[in-house]
Amino acid sequence: MRTTSTTTRTLRSAALLGALALVSTLTACATDSQAAAPLSDPSGSSAAAHPEWSHYTFTIGDNGGDGSQTLAKITGVFDNAPYKVKFARFTYGPPLIQAAASGDIDLGPVGDVPPITGAAKEYGFKIVAVQRSLTPTQSQENIIVPQGSPIRTLADLKGKKIAVPQGSSAHGLALNALKSVGLTPKDVQLVFLAPAAGATAFATGKVDAWSIWNPQSAIAVEHGARILAKGLPPIDQTSSYYVASDKSLNDPVKRAALTDVLERLSREFAWAVKNPGQYAEAISEEDGISLADAKTSLTAQESRVTPVQPADILAEQQLSDAFLQAGQITTKVDIPSIVDSILPDGYDSSKLG
Hints:
about 350 residues, alpha/beta, D-Maltodextrin-Binding Protein, domain 2, 4-stranded antiparallel sheet, about 15% strand
């Protein structure tokens, strides 16, 4: 599998997250000589068995931070695929949702909020699978405050400035965290900033708190920031979602091939969980952070891929209704209408060999 190298970034949070704002494309080719042996074909398919797939090139949206591009190269998971694959890098979920809706990407992972805000704008995409944390007691995102901050409780955020990537899972965390102590967005100043700009604002004291995910949160804490609220139930989900474009899903032949793409992606993450050292190296390489920082956020990255379940739909509906009630969206979203689970019933990537 042929890949382009990701931009090298410094460890300092502002510079690191500034570099994360860049979008790069990763194209398919052969694994290098240091790579692991290719993972087996998940469906037993081959170019000979599926000649109709040979003219497809699938673009996978990469939300950053999980090492998926580098893992694909290490594992060779797409080496024997009867189609081509490339990766497109995004800094967070909302732009990825837009790309799926426009057909610029075929598949990609996002947090729990981007499908809601995307559906409220009537974008054309569907939720097709769930990426579940293997350590649901480990938060993947947090609300953090600077070292030495006098803010000690969520109630102390009243009247304060909170940096939030708008329409992201961290936006949902902030909303529900405030609600848990009787506050609304009107009681604080939500400063909508993309991750890079949020990092700069947080580092320079222009905001009082920052709702953000790993590895940014973990790195900030490692360098002195303090966690005010963890992104855990009941105020936050620990699952994320794969979304796909309607354009790909509505073509039966392409849909079958896209399911194969998703199963291969799930296999690379199953391999990563069993090879944490190499997984950390992949995250370090892809995000331009130190190996120590990559290991700090590793536990929260470990996940399994499954079909969408009724409980997931309910959780998303409740979150969507909370966004509507808080005035963060203006259109009611019917979550079942944007779900189209494509994996076989009972599929669970954690059971893969």
